[in-house]
Amino acid sequence: MSSVDIIVIIIFTLLVVGCGISFAGSGKNMKSYFSAGGALPWWMSGLSLFMSFFSAGTFVVWGSIAYQHGWVAVTIQWTMCLAGVVIGFFIAPKWQKTRVLTAAEYISERLGERVKKVYTSIFLTIATFSTGTFLYPVAKIVEVSTGLPITNTIIGLGLLILLYTAVGGLWAVIVTDILQFVVLTAAVLVVVPLALQEIGGISNFINKAPENFFSLTGGEYTWSFIFAFALYNLFFIAGNWAYIQRYTCVATPQDAKKVGWLFGGLYLISPVIWMIAPMVYRVLNPDIAAADNEGAYLLMCKEVLPVGMLGLMLGGMIFATSSSINTALNITAGVITNDVIKPLYPKLAESKLVKIGRLTTVLLGLVTITIALLVPYMGGVVEVVMTMAALTGGALFLPPIWLLFSKYQCGFSILTTSILTLSINAYFKFISPWLFELSLSRAEEMLLGVTTPVILLVLFELYYRATKQVAPRYAQYKQLESLKQQAEKEGANTDSGSNNAANTKGNQVIGFGILFTGLILICLAILAEKGNLVVALMASIVTLIGTWLIFKNKTADVEGVYEQA
What does the record list as GO biological process (predicted)? Predict the structure, then answer.
């Protein structure tokens, strides 16, 4: 890695952290700190959802699968597109109508405090562990590219990420997510033509590829696995507490629909673009060790990118993959503050609760760093991510989604479904292989994890409907929902001014960050000895987008002044 690449990484790091910290004064109350005021533009929330989800290890986990099995990595990710479309039509608007700050708040209102406490305990335990698995791929990318020890990288990156997340709240998460989306998209679009040029064009790539490399399935990733993984993604994207936040922080149900649809549309196109690089690298270098598969994407980038572009790509990938971390830290801290601390101390001022939220974010970040350091001892990141998906996906995320559509499910049925499913999954994952040498395949694990809660909830639903047992708290919940709607209408005018100001500032910070990135790309196009035309084209597009966002906001500010006059 050249000195130019290192300089670009440092500049981009300062840019991202600076954009996040610029929202230090935005978290004046719980709603602004944890939900950006509840009136976030749908496109911002949709891009943030996209970045938060794919960054859980796209370039490491799916890149490794693309290197080994080819097109199957794209097939797996297309299940996320289907999930986004379904969520947009049916589930996202339901979440928006709940008008809650966290999913735990919804569970409390619908099922009561006792159920919320159990669910919150399970969620916090699993979410804290999962966040550590998000941090490991980020550090792995840095290790492959720079040779820095992964332990030092995990600690350094973890501290940096929790800094701007703790200071800026959800607005810091949203703005940095969008900046990362633009940077990473530009960088990836530079990699693709250069990688294909390296192998002699598309036709040469196809001709030299291994047999069945473009099959929709392969290896342990069978159609049974794809079906189960599609269900898992539907449950996970619709019911993960961090992603629910993206549906509830927009102003209307229609906006929530657009969030889901934008996510689905991006996941139709992006996997094809992302996975070309590791697939080409397999054809060029078919014999790298299995342990190095996780770095296939970056190894391809190191071969083809011009000077400085590797640094920008690496910076984008670091902070893009860290998006899952800052999202998880923000929502987990929100649950602890809003649903654990606030009920215990109801008289605490909003300003003190925000301070507690920031402190909680820091403490959770330190735990995340510790868990990330342990990932290599758990079988590697692919094994850990897939195991977590099979164990927890259906058990934790489907029951709350089901509540949105049923007036019959109660605390007993929801808790029984979650706890029983988790127990069954854990038995077949950890106990039966040890006692009876009975292990499930990847597809069988995933199928068991997603079908068990479906079966249990269907049985409960049929029983309660047959006996006409409406959930005891349902009528109370509907009354509370009506009161919330009324309060929202009365407070709409009061909040609109501050929300508009926050949205305007968000646009301005995003525009500045994108424009600055465009200027970096222009400098790199001048320095490039190869691929300079491709880099120059991307630089022009990015610069125009940043300029348009800044000009648009200045025009809006002027119009607002004339309207007030």
Answer: inorganic ion transmembrane transport; sodium ion transport
